[in-house]
Input
Amino acid sequence: MRTVKEAEERRNEILDAVDVLFGQKGFDGTSTNDILEKVGIARGTLYYHFKSKEDIMDALIERYNTRLIGAAQEIALDKSIPVYERIMRVVMALNISGESSQEIMEHIHKPQNALMHQKIQRVIISGVPQILGGIIREGIEQGLFNTPFPFECMEMIVIYLNTIFDNDIVEMTDEGRLSRMRAFAFNAERLLGAEHGSLMHVMQMFGGENGDSHE
Output
């Protein structure tokens, strides 16, 4: 039991170091020797835990996925936060952040990493609607929403956001992004049976672009 714990701690120590190195030097700019020096381990120890640098990146992404979903669930369960605000906080919690966040995003969007990108999308599409659906059900009980399909509504919304606002799939100008954000708020309100302008108001509270919906 002790050996398993030590192995897991060492593995996380390597991932912590690589998170910093990828952020400083980038994926391609970080060598195996950089990792060995940063962690202070032998090459054999590194390869005991990871087969390659690409394997380390995969593990780092997996760890981010676990943390993101965990953070989203924690926010969703905090009923001291109003429903609308909780929805926005859950969505914002899904943004990858950390030393190597930009490097990770660039890495997963490379053509050769399409399967990795698909894996992340699968985690989001399978996990996030369940989390948000619970909040929507609370909103229905409070009279904020009126829909018989809370999970399905969130599934549609998450798939749309995960696709349209992925720059690797849809290229758009700042004006196009603003227009889509307005349209998203406008249509999401109707999908959920929410009061007109309610989602747009919350988006503006969280630093979203200003803009009025049109009837």
Residues 210-215 have pLDDT under 50 and may be disordered.
